[in-house]
Structure formats: C-alpha cells, structure tokens
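Follow-up to my post from last week.
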Amino acid sequence: MATPTSQETVFPPPLVEGGHTFGSVTDAICGVVEKPTSNGWKAAFTAALAGLALFGVSVGYLIWEGTGIWGLNNPVAWGWAIVNFVFWVGIGHAGTLISAILFLFRQKWRTSINRFAEAMTIFAVICALTFPTIHVGRVWLLYWAMPIPNQMGLWPNFRSPLLWDVFAVSTYFTVSLLFWFVGLVPDLATLRDRAKTKIAHTLYGMASLGWRGANRHWQNYERAYLILAGLSTPLVLSVHTIVSFDFAVSVVPGWHTTIFPPYFVAGAIFSGFAMVLTLAIPARKVFGLQDFITVRHIENMNKIILVTGMMVGYAYAMEFFIAWYSQSAYESFAFVNRAFGPYAWAYWIMVSCNVITPQLFWFKKIRTNVGLSFILSIFVNIGMWFERFVITMSLHRDFLPSAWDYYSPTIWDITTFVGTFGLFFTLFLLFLRFLPAVAIAEVKGVMPQANPHWEGYHQHSDAAHGTTAGHGDKVHG
Amino acid sequence: MAATAHNRATIPAQADAGAANGVFKIGLGLGVVGLAGVGGAFAVDHKQAYFSWLTAFAFYTTIALGGLFFTMLHHLVRATWSTPLRRAAENLAANLPLMAVLFIPIVIGMHDLYHWSHAEAVEGDPILKGKAGYLSPTFWIVRAVIYLAVWNVLAWFFRRTSLRQDETGDVGLTFKMRKMAPAGVLAFALTISFAGFDWLMSLNPHWFSTIFGVYVFAGATMSMFAVLALTALWLTNRGGLGNSLTIDNVHDVGKLMFGFIVFWTYIAFSQYYLIWYGNIPEETVWYKVRLENGWQWYSRLLAVGHFALPFWVLMSRHAKRNRLVLGITAVWLLVMHFLDHYLLVSPTLHDHGPHPATLWMDAAAMLGIGGLFVAFYARRFTKAAALPARDPQLAAALEYDNA
Amino acid sequence: MADRRTWGLLAEFENPATLLHAAERARDAGYKNFETWTPFPIHGMDRAMGLKGSKVGWIVLGGGLTGLAGALLLQWWTSAVAYPMVIGGKPYFAWEWATPVTFELSILLSAFGAVFGMFALNRLPRPYHPLDRIPRFRKVTDDAFFLTIEATDPKFAQAREFLEQAGGRNITEVPA
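User reply:
Got it. Predicted complex:
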C-alpha cells in the first residue's frame, strides 16, 4: 500500500474549503441574500437594466417595422437571429450538463456550481427563445406554431425542423425550470426559516411549499431528482441535436453533414462551460464564495473546456476532410470558401478561439490561474458565437452565383444582440440577490460530516469516553 | 459497511488460474476449428472468405480498441470506481498485437475487398480519381501500419506500467499513466476514425459520412462493456474473486453498457436520419442497399436488437444487478455487434440482397479469430493479477456502495 | 395515549450518526408513525427507518408513455388524416420525421410526472404544520436533526421514555 501522503495526492482535495460546519455553510450562502443591497450590485443592475431597455427598444422597433431592419438579404435569409439563438441555447447546455450529467456520474464537485449553472441555463434559454419569437416577423401569429384547432383546419408542419425546435426548446425550458425549482425548494425553506421580516417569511414560505425536511419527503425528493437528472441528460443532447437539424436536414453544402448532431452538442457544452467560468469567476470574488467555488472547480471546468474544444476541432477537421473526400464540387467549395472566402476573417477567429487558445489549458499552471481562465473563457464565448456565424454564412454563396451576396449586420442586429445581454444579466443579478446562489442542502450533503459513518463521529464518542482525539481538524479530511 | 472495507489488509486479486487456463484451452481449440473452417471457406469462395474475415476482424478489433479506450479514459478523468475493472480492459487491449497479425489477410485480399484498389477502376471514375491521393493501396497500407503501431504502443505502455505497479506499488506510476492519457486519447480518436474510413467506409468508395468514425467508436465501446460485464461476471463466479469484486462493480458496468447502447443509437440515428431527410442520391445509396431486397430485415433487427430491446431490459436497476439477465444481455449485445459489422461489410458484396448460404463462412471467421481472441485474453488472467492489486485507488473503489 | 391536543413528541439529536442510530432503534422497537427531519438527505436513513422504495418512478413511467403515445397520435392524425399534404417530398407519416417531437413530449410528460408526482406523494404544498409552532424546529433547515413520534402511534405511551433512552435532547410535546 502507498504511504498516506501519496494517498492524499491520488485522491482529489476536499470539496468545501475553510473548515466549515453545517451552520456556517448556511450562514455563508444565505448571508449573500440577507445582507443589505450592495452598491456594486446596484451599479451592475443599473447597467443591466440599460441593456434591457436597449433590447426593449430594438424589439419594439422590429415588431413595428418588420425584419427588414436587419441586414438580411436574398441568399442570407437567416442572419444574426439564428446565430444568436444557437449561441444562447448552447450557453444554456452547460447548466444542464453540470446539474444532470455530472450528477449521474457522481461528480460531487458539481454541487457548488450547479445552482448557479442551472440559473444560467434558464436565463440563457429565455434569451434564446426571444430570437425565434421575434424573427417570425408577425409575432402576434406565433401561436400558429402550436397544434391548436382552428377554423382553417390547418395544423403545424411536423415535418419542419423549425417546429421541432419549438417543441425541443420549450420542453427544455420547462424541464430546466422544474429541475431548478425542485433543487431550490429545500434552500427556500432555509431562507424562510431565517427570514427576519414577515414579507420575506411569507414569500419564501410560499415558494418553498412548506418543505420541512421529513425523511419520507427526502426519499421521494431524491428519487425525483435522480429521475429528472436522467431525463435531462438525453433532453439536453436532443435539444442541440434538433438545433443542428435546423441546418443539417437541408441540402445546403456546409450544413448537410452527418456529424452535425454530436458536433453541435460538444460545441454547446464547450461554450456553456466557458460562460459558467465567465460568470462564476467574478461572482465568487464579489460574494466571497471562494470556499465553495474553489480553484479545483475552475480547473475541472477548464479540463472540460479543453476536451470539448478538442471534439469541436475534431469535427472541423472531419468536415474538411470529408468535404474533400466526397469529391463533391459543392461541398469542397463551401469549405474552401469558409476558410479563404470573404468570411475568412470570421473563420479564423473561430478556429483561433475554439481550437488554438484552449490548448493553453494543457498546462496546469494556466488551468489553475483564475485570471487567465477568465480571459480564455471569454475567448471561447467569442469563438463559439463566430462558429454559428460561420455556419450560417454558408448561405452567402449558394448554388446560384448570380445571387451571391455579402451579409453585413445593421445597427439593429447589433443592438438586439447586445440587448439580450441586458436581459440575461438583469435576470441573473435578480437571482444572485434573492435566491441562494449555491445549493445549500446539497453542499451540506457532500461534507464529510454528512456521512453518518464519518470517522469523526467515532472519534467523537471516544472523546466522550475520556480518550483524547481531536476531531476538529478532521473536518478537512 | 464502508468502515470495514477500509481495514481490508490485502485484497484478493489473483483470479483462479486453473479456471482461466481452462478457458484458454477451450478458446484455442475452438480457434483452430474456426481457422480450419476459414481455410475451407477460402477454398470454396475466396472473395466471400475475405469479406467474412474482415467482418470478424472488425468485430474483435473494435472490442480490443474499446478496452484501450476504457483504460485511457479511466486515467483521463481520474476515476476511482473503475479501478477494479481496469485490468480486464488492459488485457483486452493487449490483444491488439494479435489483431495486427490477423490484419495480414486483409492486406492480401485488398483487391477482393476494395473496389478503389483497382487502378483500372479508378481510371474510369472521376470521383475515385479525385481521391486517389488518399485511397491508394500504398498509402492505405502505410496508414494501417500507423494505426496498428499507435494502438499497440499505447496498449503496451498502459498495461506494462500498470503491471509494474502491481510489483512496486509506486504511486508515481499512476501519475505517469495519467500524464500519458490525454495524448493517448487524442491519438486514439484520430486513428480509430480514419481506420473506420479506410477499412469499412471505403468498401463503398463513393459513399461518405462525417460521423462514421464516431459510429465505429460507439460500437467499439458498447461491445467492450459487454465483454467487460461478462468478464466481471466470470471473475466473481468461476474466477474466484467473489470476495473482491461485488455485484456493485457489475452494476457499474451495466450502467455504462446501457449508456453506450443509447450513445450508439444516437450516432446511428443521426447518420441515418440526416441522410433520410436530405435524400441526396450519393448518400442514400448506402442505405438503399441495406433497406431493400431482404436486407431491410437485418436492418430492422439491428434497430430492435441493438437498441429497443436491450434499452428496455437494462432500464431496470434490477436487471443490471441480476447476473443472469445482465449476462444474457451482454451476449445478446455481442451478437448485435456482429450484426452491425455484418451489415457494414456484407451488403457491399451482396448488394442485391442477403446471401444466408455463406453465413457459415462468417461464423467460421468469427470462431477462428474469436477462439484466439478469447484464449489470449483468458491467459492473461493466469499471468498477472486480475485487478490492479496495488493501485492506491483500489481499496476506495471496492468499498463503493451502489445505492 | 393519543391526546387530541397533542400531535406528537419532538426530540433533537446531535448529528446524522446519532439520528440514524435512533431511527434504527425506533424501527426495531416497533414504532410506525415516526419521522426524522434533517437539513439534507442522510445516506442510509430509508433503510434505518424501514421505509419501502419511492413510487415516483411509476408515475414517471405513466407520464412518459402518455407523452409517447400522445405525440405519435397527434402527428399522425394531423399530418396523415386531418389535412394530408405533401411537404418536402416526405411521406404523410413516417417514424423518422416524427421522432424529434415524440421524444420531446415523452421527456416533458415524464418530467411532469417526476416533479408533480413527487409533490403529490409528499402532500406538498403544505402551508401549516404543527411543528411550525416549535421555534427550535426552525433549525431543521440549518443544522439540526430531529426525530418525531406521532400521537397516533400505538406505542406512543412509551415514546418519551424511548426518546430519552435513544439519546434525544430537548424532548418537546408538540401541540396539534
């Protein structure tokens, strides 16, 4: 057997740092919500509201005037709206991955970041959903996408990938919201029981549905949570798969290729984890949650970014290779045009940010450097937006050379996209202010003291019988 | 429960050598019988014999590659729970030298198997002419040598380092293997994809699919878990390690087997679905052959047998923990893995419908390669411990309570 | 001795280990209507209390099958029966194109089964509970571990003595 010191290095370090007890975990996490509103939060919220206002104006004008205010042209009938839609949906996927897939794989390190990431999922999906909603032009007829009996006897076209999107993304939103809420219920009960004002007590009391921690309730709760995780895993894969079908079921060169479903899923996870880092690194500092969102969490996420970045790179390589291997003139042209045509600048931004810069995460020094991780995560966010842009711009040189055109966004394309960040951060800041950003009950559950068979308890009873055994220092182990 | 496992002084790790030797002898015997059958097949119809050989070769190579992947994945994600199963995976990967030798007939039969290897066929075909830089006999052989070399080096490195840890108990070796894993997985991903293109996809040299490499990988991993499940069942029963490995370890394999059934289905469906919907002749031709003239029954059986049936069976936690049910499912999945490769290879030769009369040749090749494969695999359990006995993570992995 | 004005007895335990032990003793002593209350689920408590498995899974299965059948029926009927139209050269109905929506609706209704089934089995929402009157009990969502024996339990008469022996502290009578 190995020596104890080397044993420690083979196994990962503890998940919660700083020698916490159950009570201090509650205090630390609830404290964020219970403290008076900070000026930093107010400043950030004001900025976010300004972004939201910009979004409101852009969408208002779009509905008034029509989609002609965007830079769409004849070959490029899909512009930034689809790019932004796919971008935001992809961001959302890391949240589900952390909450569901890592849960199924018993990756306990997820507990500190899952609440945070699930919130990110829900708000990102809200941002995503706005684009298909507004891009239809006549927003007031959106209910036509639903199978509602009507006097025309018409039904939605179930053969259309855009209708699958309606079902996939709305199911995804609903299930993510339910999953998030189920996770929140015990923590809302904690806030209820700590509430100082009557209004807070009533509101948190209603939201927590009267949760009191009975074991019979926990039993059903844990089973439901496990099942939800099991359902969310195929769901999240299916959502980006169906998003990829928007492109891939067509016969457009550069879109119609069989690797699209897993390639989109890998890209979504890649971009989603980058966004989790972009949000979590400042938040842990501002709210003093470094004991819960540790460098180990950041390093693990960087590893996932590295792996999924490689998968995305693999897909780029396969697409290029098979485009040549197919000896189809159209396929080859589409890819050569991507890399060396008018949008070459976008293509190389994509490759640099998605394939090249993440390679720096091979080095442990960089993976564990919080500042560099933050910067590299932003690179990935940029790169993944450009990936969707590059894919969408396959349209600009279609089968008919006389129709070829160059797509440029108008100011309204830009303000709408920037505005969604206002929407996103408004919701996110409200979440940070009023709801526990770390899953309290779950974090307690992964602390060593939570295990009834923890050594500390045996030593403790020894201590009660007169032997001297310090159990305080055992909290770390 | 957990506390007692901690104090286990030494973990029994040596499989029953007598039982493993028995398997070795039976495997060797069956292998010789199968190879004799293959000899007969070559005498009767050498073209068909090459196709049968390729089917069986792909079947077993993918299983060995799955073992290599599992070993590297274990180190890559620094898993603890999979430690007791890692040796079996290493032993599977150690069959890759055998597969390298068994690849020789495919090189010899290249002209019977691959249409593009005929210079005169390429001459009259602009598409094949266009890709002759890649699909040329020389370059194809060079690539095959590279794939086999990469796999063998990786398999050798991970098994040798692991065996050395059995002797020294040096934790540093764990770190050494972890260091090697990322580069290994990367090399593996590229080689298995291009091997899939070269050996299977290029049977129909006009057809192409970007996901094909992932498809081969998905089948490889699923079938490897089926073999791992059977190995774990054997080790806990005849193998005499019932005190170290528990039904919890078997259950874990069952869960992963289930996961990769779903993954395979996802990849298979993605490929089929996009081609079905796109409906472009140069792509649909591959499925058209497989969905007409009787082949459609094989395809439907694959859909039901490789997905629907095992999916519903393994959904249940009880099924994954029941030795008999899990064992039967694992064997069934291996049959389906054969059907999968049979459908990849055979319709190229019999594009006007299935030819069941030649199935005995496929069976002979499966038995011939399979007998040797199982024999060498079993023999490794007599040579070294069946669990990585002195891996520092083993004790923690074995006290797992699979609630 | 079920007093109408008594809901039951509440006892506090120091940590998950002592609570688990007390629950095992309560089960072995033949108590039926007892419950443990904890800030997080405790591994092994279901077995310690002698509980049967959760039924949530069956509700999920029902939801999932309803979604599956409903989605297929909806797509087949609207596309092949109510208003058949050729679109994109695709058949009026084919399992291929019906797969995405069928999959999504199966998942959606399964998830409804999991969440609402869980709430229903737990009889939630429940705004008021007799335990709410005990100020100490508020710590149950923080760091306190409780065991209650309800007055309806046939062996309630010996409950106080039992809780004392099991190591319970601050044993309190909870009014109904």
